[in-house]
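Input record (one chain):
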Amino acid sequence: MEKEKSGFFARLKNGLNKTRINLLDGLDGVFHGFSTIDDDFYEELEEVLVMADIGVVTSSEIIEEIKTLVKVEHIKNPEDCRDYLINLLSERINTHTDDYSFENEKSIIFVIGVNGVGKTTTIGKLAHNFKEDNKKVLIAAADTFRAAATEQLEAWAERVNVPMVKAKEGTDPASVIFDALQSAKAKDVDILLCDTAGRLHNKKNLMEELKKMNRVIDREFPGIHRENFLVLDASTGQNALNQAKEFKEACDITGIILTKMDGTAKGGIAIAIWQELKIPVKYIGVGEGIEDLQKFDSKSFVSAIFDNENN
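The corresponding structure, as predicted from the sequence alone:
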C-alpha cells in the first residue's frame, strides 16, 4: 500500500512539474527576496498566485488571511509564511469522502464538455479505473452528432475491454441511453458512462437534451444515482473557469475533471474553480498514460506542487 501511494505521488508530482516550477520559482523569489514583511512583499506574493491562475479573488483572500496570521502570530520572517500559504491553499480545495459515494451504488455518469478537452480519452480512462476497482462498467456513445466520436470511443472501449452501446450518426441521444439502460440492467452494470455532445453554443439545446435523457432514465431505471462530470482542459487557464461557469448555468455539474495538467504551468486553476464555483474537482489528468487520470486529493495536490510528500 505504501509503495502504491508513493507511485501515485510520484506520477502526480511529475504531472504537475510545470505548475510547480512556475509557482516555486515565483515564491522563492518573494520569500528570499524580502527581508521584512511589508506591503511590497504582499503585493509580490499575490502576483505570483495570480500568475499561477489561482484567481484574483482567491489570491486576494489568501493574502488577507496571511496578513491576519502575521499580526496574530507576530511573524517577522517572510519565509515563515510558506507553511501558512500551503495550508491556506489546501483548505481552499478540501476534498470530501462523499465526493466518490457514487462508486458504492449503481450510477450513471454523464460526461460533458466541449470538443477538444479530452472528453473521449477521459471516458476511456475512467472506464479503466472503475474496472480496476472491480466495477462492472458499460459505455454509452450518446454523442451522435460528431462523426468520429463513436469510432474514437469504441477504440477506447476495446482498449480497456469494456462493452459499449452505440448507434448510427444522427440518432437521438436519448434512444442510445434507452438501449444502454436495458443493457446495464441485463448485465447488472455498476457504472454506466455516457458520452454527450461536445457543444455549448446553445445552452437551451444542451439543457433540453439532458432533460430528455434524464426522463428516459426516470422511466427505465428510477432511483439510479446520477452524476454530471464536466471535462475541462486545464491548460486553457481562465478560459476553463469561464467554460465551467457557462456549463453550470446549463446543467447541474456534480464534479470537474481537469485534463492536461501536465501540459500547463497554471495548475492553480483547480483552486480557482473550486473556490469560485464550489464544484469539487474529482479527477485530474497528469499524463498521457492510462493510469494518469487520478482521483483528486487536495493535500496530495498541494504537496506535489510544493515538492513535499508529507501526507
